[in-house]
Design a protein that fits this description.
Layout lengths: L1 H16 L11 H8 L6 E2 L5 H4 L4 E4 L6 E2 L7 E4 L1 H7 L14 E4 L7 E4 L15 E5 L2 E2 L13 E8 L3 H4 L6 E7 L7 E9 L3 E11 L4 E12 L3 E2 L6 E2 L2 E14 L3 E15 L45 E16 L4 E18 L11 E20 L3 E23 H10 L8 H8 L7 E26 L2 E19 L6 H7 L35 E21 L2 E12 L2 E2 L7 E2 L2 E14 L4 E13 L2 E6 L7 E6 L3 E4 L5 H4 E7 L6 H9 L14 H10 L11 E4 L19 E2 L17 E9 L1
Parallel strand pairs: 7-10
Antiparallel strand pairs: 1-2, 2-3, 4-9, 5-6, 7-8, 9-10, 11-12, 11-35, 11-36, 12-13, 13-16, 14-15, 16-17, 17-18, 18-19, 19-20, 20-21, 21-22, 22-23, 23-24, 24-25, 25-28, 26-27, 28-29, 29-32, 29-33, 30-31, 34-36
Length: about 775
Amino acid sequence: MMSADYRPIHLLLALLASGAVAAAESGNTATAAAADGAGAATATAAAVDPAAEGVIETVTVTAQRRTQAVQDVPIPVQVVTPQLIESLAATDLAQMSGYVPGLQVSGEQPTQPGYTLRGISVSDFGIGTDSPIGIYEDGVYAGKTGGALLMFNDVQRIEVLKGPQGTLFGRNSAAGAISVVSNEPVAYWSAAATARFGNYGAKYYDAMVNVPLGQDLAARVSFVDNRSDGWLSDAATGERYNREGDWGMRAQLRWNAPADTRVRFIWEHENLSQPARPAIGIVPLAPSPALPPPFMPGVSSTADWFDPLHAPVLNDVINGVESRTFDGATLRIEHAFGFADFTSISGYRHFNTYNREDQDGTNRQYLYFDDANIEQNTSWSQEFTLASKTEHADWVAGADYYYNDANQTSQLNFFTDSIDTVLNNTGLAPGGLYGPISQATGINLLGLPWQENMFNHGLYRAAAVYGDVIWHLAPKWNLTTGVRFTHDDKEFSWYNPTRTAPELDAALAPLYPGGMPVVPFLPPLQTFQQNLVFNTPVSTAAPLRVSNSWNDTSPRVVLDYKPQPDLMVYGSATKGYQAGGYNALAPGAKYDPETVRNYELGVKSELADRRLLLNASVYYYLYSNLQNLSLITNGSTIPQYQVTVSGRRARLPVAWDRLRRCRLDAAARVPRGLPLQRRLTRSGRVPVDPDFQNGRSDQSHRCAARLDEPRARAGDGCRILEQPLRQPLRDRGADYQRHDARYALHQHHRPALLRRGSRRAVLSCKESCT
């Protein structure tokens, strides 16, 4: 299995090393590739190399469904470049948190990710809810569940648009949108490969081959693989947790068809299989069968808890694994008419996920509790757009349709021992139920599994039409007006059948012949058959089905003014819309759509001869039906998270919270010849930043020492990259620091550049040739 997974990367690496292609230093390979395709947008080089002059490169984006320089777009937008991804050794968006102001991505469970933009998020992962942040990959909406957080694979750029994007990006973009754009095939031979290795068995590979198949046809294949042995160990079994195991590939064809037509087809596949996130208990337990606080004497306050950084990991989850298979296909057709450019984007996405993890943080059967999230999701989408530029206006109009068929199983697993613990601790049956009956009858009812399931099915359809016009009022003034009309149809069902416990039923059979107890002190048989958590009667015998539809109109108005070429100020009023939905674990629970109106002022500027970029914005949000995630008991023995709406308006005034509501983005390039780089080039040896050794583990110290050995000299072509080391574990109640360093041997024909303020060093290999 492992050899088959690695075969594509080995083939591509061998191709690069065999001399079949002429290796050449190509620092601008990605730029050249993007420039080849019509409509491609990435960092572009000027006639004089901007990097050589210390000038910030011009970056073009399609944030307004048009190709524009990012500094000309009157929207707060952050662009993540391949260079930043490589310098951080990031494998997905979760590892970019902290580098895009206002964006936080939780990736500790890749099949159940969480996105927060400008503080707005709904963390519920049930299929009945939608995220207020729209995720798009090559123009195709990715939703918010198991297929929303994939590995970076041959990425050209990532655009993070802040604030409501309801007009151009549609439903579920009330807080913003994230658009991931991949590199497309080019008309010349190109290949690249990267390898990184590190402690805890970390191994990362990616490779790409681009092949021209004729004058008008080109193909591109890319592969990525990320694995590690894990950096947490079970204190009792030695099982390794936080292991990584993910690989994916993408194949593309681009055809320059006759009559000014371009066709691009993309197929991608990803496979993830790794241990589920561990639950780490921080409360000390007395010897079995002692109960945790507040029922255990002598442990009454947080002062008696374990230090989260040193708490032992003790998990006993059965089949604790997180897995995903993902397949996607995209067909993009572009045709130039005389009056406008036509674009069609057809998308298909399908994934299966399974995530079963420990929830009690112990290895004691009488405390056992795990849950599993199982999803199967298929979606289709189609979008048509027309766009044109004239002397007086630039306009775009479009229509799109989205279809999603989603199934989700929320599963809870106990043992009869742990059910006794719950019944005792809640006072429903002091002393438990199964233990006392076992002692009284001599028939063992302990140690038997108990499973409850909530089955959800969602069928969603959404259609929209939109238009957006940039009016050129004067040489320095532009007015943008736009509107989108959206219609949502949703069907949803809940089904929570009685618990599954065949071993318990077999053990109870001798005690209840014909359904009647053999001794009078036994409770009715139904006592052992009713659910503990998923116990809503209305959806027990058969699925409960509901359907709803909603309509929305989302306008936007933007006025921008450029007093000089490198300065723009703008003001905007926009509306965002998040569709209504359903609480997956509360049968019959529905909530209405959320809308947000945003009023924003901003400035974009390039200073110091384009060596300093300074963008700032201030905004004011006005919400209707604000959706919140709340912990609700509803009479159940285990509380559940559910989405609720306020039913009232909520205001987020800037003046009251300036630090959180004002964003300041800045970027600067250090010109060549400054002392830091001169020291690197002249000495030949790569020094390690003193901050690198602060708070390191012993393993990290050893890796840091290796980086200062002669084989890691800048003159020998080794490249040092830095990245932060924060790896949160929310179960510990504090941030847990992952300390490691990654290194590789390679050939890189440039001097190393060590940036200031590092936390981790990565010695990385990248070869590219054209």
